[in-house]
């Protein structure tokens, strides 16, 4: 830049400081501050804020606060964005009393709190189980003349739901248009999800009708909540009918829900059909949850060969220990040694590394079901020979000797 006669300005130096802070190189960022001041370029609030953010990311909150004092002394008072960074760090650390002090400091020193300020604090309180305090902040926010955002509304709705104040929830949603709040589909989904957890089926349907009347278009998440609610209530046939005959948009979560509850209600053929339909007709790729449900359901029916084939199909994408272990446990309980050997040979054929953790879980599974007894130990020996191959050592050599 200098070679081309272009002098770096505060924006140039601030960008460099931001990059160093994101890389965790705070000492070098301070070096840039010294450098720019030597060049006669005074740092601004957006120059200091990334350093403060870096301190907070590293849990160095006290140093962040000292930096804010330094900014005051340097004639560059922190902005509300700077304060929001500090408040977020304090909330993440559960230091809510200090957040109160910072809010009082903000009101004294001048920068007006923003919706982000309150959203950060309310969200942290809600997640920490202090929903009532979060709701109080909602009222404070309105008194400050701040317009709640969609995120604010979602937090408030969730807080009311936590305390089963569903009359407040409905009132808030009804007033959303009057107060010019954007009660979007996310807000309705928040409430419907909580109602589903509390088995308030009728209320879910009422909210669905209300959002449609207001012209709010339900999304896939909305319908997944509805499908889950129907399945839990024992209305699986209605849920299946909605998806297959009424064009409800379905994703992998939708199909996972239907397959799970089909197996749960003993409708294995429906589950198998849905698995094939989602792959071949709906063109929805099964995920690990899908295969976990399928393998568990097939094993419960005693269809161990099909369960093994299902696992082999999943192996085309990757090897999941979370999927392998329960399969081995079920095959072990039924002494399906041949299937286990097939599984491990397929793992090797697909080029995956069979590490000690996989073997340890397999041996542990067999010992749990009783194969450590002398009358059944041959099963374990046969298994290890099948996995390792004939003539391979079961015990690794060490210092020229076998460990016994």
Automatic annotation (TrEMBL):
PROSITE patterns: PPR
Keywords, sorted A to Z: Repeat, Transit peptide
Entry keyword Hydrolase: no
Pfam families according to UniProt: PPR_1, PPR_2
Renumbered ranges of PPR repeats: 9-43, 44-78, 79-113, 114-148, 184-218, 287-321
Stated name of the protein: Pentatricopeptide repeat-containing protein
């Amino acid at each position: 830049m200098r070679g081309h006669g272009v002098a770096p300005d505060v924006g140039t130096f601030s960008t460099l400081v931001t990059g160093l802070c994101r890389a965790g190189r705070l000492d070098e960022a301070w070096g840039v501050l010294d450098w720019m001041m030597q060049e006669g370029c005074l740092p601004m609030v957006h120059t200091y804020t990334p350093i403060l953010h870096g301190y907070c990311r590293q849990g160095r909150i006290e140093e962040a606060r000292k930096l804010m004092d330094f900014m005051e002394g340097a004639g560059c008072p922190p902005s509300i964005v700077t304060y929001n960074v500090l408040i977020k760090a304090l909330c993440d650390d559960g230091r809510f009393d200090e957040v109160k002090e910072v809010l009082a400091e903000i009101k004294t020193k001048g920068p007006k709190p923003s919706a982000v300020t309150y959203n950060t604090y309310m969200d942290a309180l809600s997640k920490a189980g202090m929903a009532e305090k979060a709701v109080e902040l909602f009222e404070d926010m309105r008194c400050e003349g701040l317009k709640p955002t969609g995120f604010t509304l979602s937090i408030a709705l969730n807080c009311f739901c936590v305390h089963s104040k569903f009359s407040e929830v409905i009132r808030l949603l009804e007033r959303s248009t009057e107060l010019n709040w954007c009660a979007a589909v996310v807000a309705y989904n928040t409430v419907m999800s909580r109602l589903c957890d509390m088995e308030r089926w009728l209320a879910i349907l009422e909210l669905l009708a209300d959002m449609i009347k207001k012209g709010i278009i339900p999304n896939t998440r909305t319908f997944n909540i509805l499908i889950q609610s129907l399945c839990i209530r024992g209305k699986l046939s209605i849920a299946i009918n909605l998806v297959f005959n009424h064009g409800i948009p379905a994703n992998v979560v939708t199909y996972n829900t239907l397959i799970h509850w089909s197996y749960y209600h003993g409708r294995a053929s429906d589950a198998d059909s849905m698995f094939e339909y989602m792959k071949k007709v709906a063109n929805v790729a099964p995920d690990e949850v899908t295969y976990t449900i399928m393998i568990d359901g097939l094993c419960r029916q005693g269809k161990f060969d099909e369960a093994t084939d299902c696992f082999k199909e999943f192996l085309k994408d990757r090897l999941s220990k979370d999927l392998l272990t329960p399969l081995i446990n079920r095959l072990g309980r039924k002494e399906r040694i041949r299937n286990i050997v097939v599984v491990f040979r397929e793992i090797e054929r697909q080029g995956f590394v069979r590490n000690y953790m996989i073997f340890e879980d397999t041996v542990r599974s067999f010992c749990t079901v009783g194969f450590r007894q002398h009358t059944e130990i041959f099963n374990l020996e046969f298994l290890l020979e099948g996995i390792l191959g004939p003539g391979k050592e079961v015990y690794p050599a060490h210092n020229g000797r076998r460990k016994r």
